[in-house]
Structures are given as C-alpha cells and as structure tokens.
Amino acid sequence: MQDAIVIGGGFYGSMIALYLMKMRGFKAVTLIEREAALLNRASYNNQARVHNGYHYPRSFTTAFRSRVNLPRFIKDYPDAVVTNFTKLYAIARNNSKVTAKQFERFCHEIGAKLEPVPASVEKLFEPRLIEAVYLTEEYAFNSRELAGEARRELDEIGVEILLNTRVKSIHRQGNESLSVTYEQDGKSIERSTRFIFNCTYSGLNQFTGDFPGTQTKLKHELTEMALVEMPDALKGLGVTVMDGPFFSMMPFPARGLHTLSHVRYTPHMQWNDAPDVDPYHRLEHYHRDTRVDRMIRDVARYMAPVANVQYRDSLFEVKTILVKNEGDDGRPILFEQHAQLPNCYSVLGGKIDNIFDVLEKLDAEPIH
Ligand SMILES: Cc1cc2nc3c(=O)[nH]c(=O)nc-3n(C[C@H](O)[C@H](O)[C@H](O)COP(=O)(O)OP(=O)(O)OC[C@H]3O[C@@H](n4cnc5c(N)ncnc54)[C@H](O)[C@@H]3O)c2cc1C
Asked: Can you give the residue ranges of the FAD dependent oxidoreductase domain (predicted)?
C-alpha cells in the first residue's frame, strides 16, 4: 500500500510529492504523469513571470500574496529565477480599468517599487495611447531549469515516478484507503493508497469512479502565446500594458526568446469545466492557427519597434481558472479535501508562486 499517490507531475504535483517525503515523513510516494516528462504542460507553457503583485490591481489579496511569495520563490529556486532584464509596466490611456494615479496608489499600498523611466525608454511608447510607464521589479523563471531541479530532488529523495501514465479513475476502498486505476502500456493497473493528491490542473475533474468532482467551479481557456525574437531596441526588456484588452512581453528563458501575449488574441476559445469534456483532448485536436499577426499589429500601435519582432512559434496550452475570479483576475489557490473521499485532495495553483500557499494549507492538515 502506498502512503500517497500524487496525480499530475507539474510543478504542484512535484512539489507536493517532495513535501510529503521531506516534511511529513512519508516513505512510499508515487507521482503519476501522463506526459513523457515532468513539468511539460502548464508549468512549461506559461508566461514565466514570477509575479510581484503589479499584475493584480483589481485583486488586492492576490497582489499581496505575490509580494509575500516572490522572495520565497527566489530563495528556494535561485537557479531558475532570471533577473537580468528591465521590467516595465505601462498604463493605457483608453479603456484601462485603472488609471495611472490608481496604479501608483495600489503599488504604494502593496509596497511594490515603482520608478520613473528614462526618456530613452519612454520614447519606445506611443504617448497618445499610453498614459504612463514605470520601472518595476519583476522577474522571470526558467521552466526547464525548474523541471530539472524538481526531477533531481524527487529522484534523490526516492519518489517513484511513473511517466506516460494516465490515471483514469479514483475509488474508495473501505473506510481507510483509496485506489487509483491507471493505464500503462495498454494495461489497466489498480493501486491502493492512503492519500491521493489530485494535481492535474486542467484535468482536475476528468476521473471516473467515486471521485465527486471539485466544488469550486472551473473555467478553461485554450491559449496561444507567441514566441518571438525581439528587435535590438527591445532586447533586455519585459513589458506589460495594463489593465484591460492589452498585452505582455516577457523573457522566456527556457528558449532564449520572448513570449508575446494579448488579452484579446491569446484566448482562442473558452468553456466551463465539464466532466465529459477533456481539456487535453480538446487541445490535442485543435487546429492551432496562429494569431500572431493580429497580436503584433495591435501591440505595434503602442510600441512601434514591435513591428520588427521575428516570430518563431507558439505555445498552446489550456489555462484553467476559477469561475469566481473571472471579474477580478485574482489567482487564489483551489484546495479541497473531498468530504465523500477522505484523504483525497484536489489542488490547483493559479500561478507558480502560489505553491507556498498550498504548502501552508498542507501544514495545517492531519496528514500522517
Ligand atoms: C498561458 C498561461 C500563462 C501563464 N502565465 C503564468 C505566469 O506568467 N506566471 C505564473 O506564475 N503562472 C502562470 N500561469 C499559471 C501556471 O502555469 C500554473 O499555475 C501552474 O503551471 C500550474 O501547475 P500545475 O502543476 O498545477 O499544472 P501542470 O503543470 O499543468 O501539471 C498538471 C499535470 O497533470 C498531468 N495530468 C493531467 N491529468 C492527468 C491524469 N489523469 N493522469 C496523470 N497525469 C495527468 C498533466 O499532464 C500535467 O503535467 C500561466 C498558465 C498558462 C496556461
């Protein structure tokens, strides 16, 4: 009998498996991942931003938690954090949900650094469309490095890792234990365990058997982020224009390129979570026609040099968020212990640094 089976080898599943061995004294932990490698899905296909609060002027709690978590993330994953670029936040003049004044007040409240930019940087922006530009403190992470670190630590501590293995169902076994059934090499295998941690992000509710589903409602977006080579004038910069139908450009250290995302064009489609609509299946069968031309055309209105980016390819991924945060863009964690299946937890972290919020929750759980 396993102490725990962790389903989903993204950043969350990997960190929870490590936590159970390191901090809770578990001896037999298995991590099951449907892909051929760990951290291959949302934990790789994202904008690689280590949030520091700026992005969430409409959700004080998320902004505040980001401020608390960023220093911990830098301390725990120093080799994965990239700081060698200049991060700018700008406020759009029209259709922004915050004004420059409100943004300044908000950054002051959360204690985040906001400085004026030199004229040489300001002139990269179109003044008729941009109200203000600020120098900020925000970093990127190298998702390949993070994956390597996770794999090394898991191997070192002795977590069993099953790759290319998809869990299909979760069952109750009497009062004391649970089991998962997974498919491996075309065979169906059942394994018993005392605890289950469901860390499958977009796949949280895609199990048959006794799994009751999460109470928190989820929504999925099929997203595209373009990977581009920046022209010389923009190399070494990260830029986010707030707060509405605008855009972000961030270094993507795992490929030595930048991601370009646009609030209007990055989501290709969205739908409410349903047990019979498998998000992974949906993405696998999607045609993936890029919208990079539309992104570049719009962004170049705000920053003319963007017209000269070189498109390389795109990261397509399903982004899963909580329905309740559609309006405020907040990214709290989902952490549920299922009443019908004691010792089975579902976890979703809206962003990478939320892992510390999850570990704090776990600290308070009677897990032994
Ligand atoms: C487009 C986009 C941009 C983002 N930008 C940022 C950002 O800039 N900064 C930030 O902090 N966060 C960002 N995020 C959010 C961040 O990527 C996620 O919060 C984080 O990666 C979630 O980690 P995870 O381990 O829960 O998910 P994942 O990394 O997706 O891990 C879940 C794993 O479960 C596996 N799995 C699913 N079902 C099964 C099954 N039945 N059996 C076995 N394995 C299964 C999957 O293959 C996957 O590897 C972004 C996300 C997206 C999609």
From this structure: 3-311
CA of 42 to the centre of ligand 1 (A): 3
Taking the domains of the chain in order of start, what are their residue ranges?
2-363
User: 301 CA distance to ligand 1 centroid (A)?
Assistant: 32
* Partners of 29 in the β-ladder: 4
> Residue 201 has what DSSP assignment?
G
Ligand 1 pocket, mutate which of 14, 18, 34 (most atoms under 8 A from CB): 34
Look at residue 175 in the predicted model and tell me its pLDDT.
81
Residues with CB under 6 A from ligand 1: 7-13, 32-35, 39-43, 45-49, 51, 166-167, 199-201, 203, 206, 223, 225, 317, 319, 348-353
Q: Return mean pLDDT, the chain.
A: 96
Give the CA-trace dihedral at 242, 250, 152, 317, to 10 degrees.
70
Q: What is the pLDDT of residue 233?
A: 94
Q: In the chain, what is the straight-line distance between the N-terminal and C-terminal CA atoms, in Å?
A: 14
CATH number for the domain whose boundaries are 2-363: 3.50.50.60
Using alpha carbons only, how large is the chain's radius of gyration in Å? 21
Provide mean pLDDT across the span 12-26.
98
Distances (CA, A) of 343 to 22, 24, 83, 200: 19, 14, 40, 17
